[in-house]
Write a structure and sequence with these properties.
The chain has twelve helices and 21 strands. It has helices at 8-18, 48-51, 65-69, 78-85, 114-126, 175-186, 204-212, 227-236, 257-265, 332-337, 350-360, 387-397; strands at 3-4, 24-31, 39-41, 61-63, 94-103, 131-135, 143-147, 155-160, 165-168, 171-174, 192-198, 216-219, 242-246, 250-252, 270-278, 284-286, 289-292, 295-298, 317-319, 327-331, 364-375. The strands form five sheets. Strands 8, 11, 12, 13, 14, 15, 16, 19, 20 and 21 form a ten-stranded mixed β-sheet that branches. Strands 1, 2, 3, 4 and 5 form a five-stranded mixed β-sheet that branches. A two-stranded antiparallel ribbon has the order 6-7. A hairpin with a 2-residue loop joins strand 17 and strand 18. The longest helix is centred in the N-terminal third of the chain and has 13 residues, at 114-126.
């Protein structure tokens, strides 16, 4: 019952002529809804981690016959076929056609199937990962791979702090005491160390608390505020396989949040992982960062905590150009390889800059909705944007990334970026 656009075969053939080495081509799709207006699925460019969350490639796709003939025929579903086909596929051999070339006969699936779980379980086995595939709690056709490591990687949690106490919803919270206590008491991950980077002005109570919890401390000696330098200082004494960079204005609401972040680094080509962050009122604060008009911006901010997102963009795993540094997991060796955070970006854009450096080094940036925390946004500092830092970021990255590969600037809302379909006339 699906219908191809009258120009679909022409568009696929034209893509093959443009890129003769292409192995897979996929297009955008239309889904029927309960209203007269169908829902367009404006897909990202090649996103292998998104594919491991659900079959975003779908049926409007063309596959190189030579590679198909080399595959096993013991397939359980179209999704299983796509996973196997792309397992060792170079992303340069994939073409995304940002055109609505397929109209689906049925609405976007709202339930999980055994075939999808089976296909993803096979993917884990073939790629050397042991784990369990589970359905996202939002009830969509979205799933997560929860990895069982032979040995848990050592994680160094680096928390820069000014030692502030702030009022939050009627209570005064000592931020550094609050977050370190919650990491100790509410987190199930054991292979971790906590490194607190202070300004040399912690109270005796705070010092005693950190010592009791076994936290390591290092003091930032410079007078001028520079979170990039503070994080680099903490990383300089870290011994973990992975670095978990996070703000002090956080609250832990999920015991296995570190495990769920580590799931994504079981894939060797992933360099950075971010999680779902909620405001204290349980609306979304961070579910990924896009880059448009030379600026990074949070997507889908202010939606309900149980929002599945645009085609599983919130509940699932998705590739983005960046994630927020408020809670970011990365590889320690990679952090040092790319020079850590850029000291010139003392306040603004340093997290997006780091993610773009990681991408330039050949690694992917991933957001996962399977890890969730509360972020008391801007409680530890007043938000600001230094014009010199904005200028540095735009001069350094805008020429290299004129368009976000994972978010359609032409067909999705931009101000703010909500994933809502909207034609931006200025860009036509």
């Amino acid at each position: 019952g699906d219908r191809l656009s009258p120009t679909a075969l022409y568009e696929f053939a034209a893509a093959i002529i443009r890129v003769p080495t292409v192995a897979m081509i996929y297009s955008d799709e239309l889904y029927p809804t309960s209203t007269p207006t169908p829902l367009p699925f404006y897909k990202p460019d090649w996103s292998p981690d998104y594919l491991e969350s659900f079959d975003y490639v779908g049926c409007g796709a063309v596959f190189q016959m030579e590679r198909v003939q080399d595959m096993s025929l013991q397939l359980t579903s179209i999704y299983d076929f796509t996973l196997r086909f792309t397992e060792t596929l170079d992303g340069n051999l994939v073409v995304h056609l940002p055109k609505l070339l397929l109209e689906r006969a049925t609405p976007f699936a709202q339930s999980e199937t055994d075939d999808i779980i089976l296909a993803m379980q096979g993917r884990l086995e073939r790629t050397g990962r042991e784990g369990l595939v589970v359905t996202a709690p939002s009830g969509t056709n979205c799933h997560h791979a929860r990895i069982r490591w032979p040995k848990q990687p050592d994680v160094s949690i680096i928390i820069p702090t000014a030692g502030y106490t702030k009022p939050v919803e009627g209570r005064d919270i000592d931020l550094i005491i609050n977050i370190t206590e919650q990491i100790s008491e509410r987190s199930s991950y054991r292979a971790q160390e906590v490194i607190v980077v202070d300004n040399g002005d912690l109270t005796d109570r705070q010092k005693t608390h950190l010592q009791r919890l076994g936290c390591r401390r290092i003091t930032f000696q410079e007078q001028a505020f520079n979170v990039a330098k503070k994080l680099n200082l903490g990383a300089s004494i870290a011994g973990g396989d992975f670095l978990l960079l996070m703000n002090d204005d956080m609250e832990i609401i999920q015991s296995d949040w570190i495990e769920r972040l580590c799931d994504q680094l079981a894939k060797p080509d992933v360099g950075v992982v971010g999680c779902r962050l909620l405001y204290p009122n349980r609306t979304t604060q961070h579910v990924g960062v896009i880059h448009y008009h030379g600026n990074p911006d949070h997507v889908r901010r202010g939606y309900p905590a149980d929002d599945a997102g645009y085609f599983n963009s919130t509940c699932g795993v998705r590739n983005f150009v960046a994630v927020t540094g408020a809670c970011m997991l990365t590889r320690r060796a990679l952090y040092h390889q790319v020079g850590g955070y850029t000291p010139k970006l003392a306040v603004s854009y340093n997290d997006a800059d780091y993610c773009l450096k990681v991408r330039a080094a050949g690694y992917r940036v991933v957001y996962t909705g399977d890890a969730e925390l509360i972020h008391m946004e801007s409680l530890s500092r007043v938000p600001s944007a230094n014009p010199d830092e904005v200028r540095y970021y735009q001069e350094h990255w805008t020429p290299k990334l004129p368009e976000d590969p994972f978010y359609s600037e032409r067909l999705l809302a931009l101000a703010p970026p909500t994933f809502e379909p909207r034609i931006n006339d200025r860009l036509l």
